[in-house]
Amino acid sequence: MKIRLNRIKVLASHFSYTGDSGDRDRFPEARPIDRGDWLLHGHALDRWRQRGRMISVGVDGWGWRSVAEATIVEVIREGIADLTSIVDLSVGTS
């Protein structure tokens, strides 16, 4: 799906261009083709928040919080990068 965030064109897909929650890329036939667009996706679980032009928007990579549109726009404006997931050590503790 193609969407606009603050006049920035991005793709949205369950799958990333490459990479997976496991050690190998599953479901290659279901993945979008990388034509240079920014991609918002799930499926990476907590493996990364950003990898190149791919932004994983699942809560598990962002400290168990939804990612605000303004945060996504800021990440895109910062440019291509690799951002690891946010580890929230308080999750699951008493």
Major sheet summary line: 6 strands, mixed
Low-confidence stretches: none
Strands, count:
6
Number of domains: 1
H-E string: EEEEEHE
Query: Gyration radius, to the nearest Å?
Result: 13 Å
List the total number of helices. Answer: 1
Strand order of the largest sheet: 1-2-3-5-4-6
Q: Give average pLDDT, whole number.
A: 87
Distance between the termini: 40 Å
Structural class: alpha/beta
Please tell me what the overall shape is.
globular
Helix content: 10-25%
Report on the structure:
The chain is an alpha/beta fold. It has one domain. 11% of the residues lie in helices and 24% in strands. It is built from one helix and six strands. The protein has one helix at residues 69-78; strands at 2-5, 8-13, 38-41, 50-52, 54-56, 81-83. Strands 1-2-3-5-4-6 form a six-stranded mixed β-sheet, covered by helices on one side. Strand 1 and strand 2 (8-13) form a beta hairpin.
Q: Which descriptors apply to this entry?
A:
six-stranded mixed sheet; 1 helix; 94 residues
Question: What's the structural blueprint in terms of helices and strands?
Answer:
Elements: E1 2-5, E2 8-13, E3 38-41, E4 50-52, E5 54-56, H1 69-78, E6 81-83
Parallel strand pairs: 2-3, 3-5
Antiparallel strand pairs: 1-2, 4-5, 4-6
Q: Could you give a short description of this structure?
A:
This protein is of the alpha/beta class and 94 residues long. The protein has one helix spanning 69-78, and strands at 2-5, 8-13, 38-41, 50-52, 54-56, 81-83.
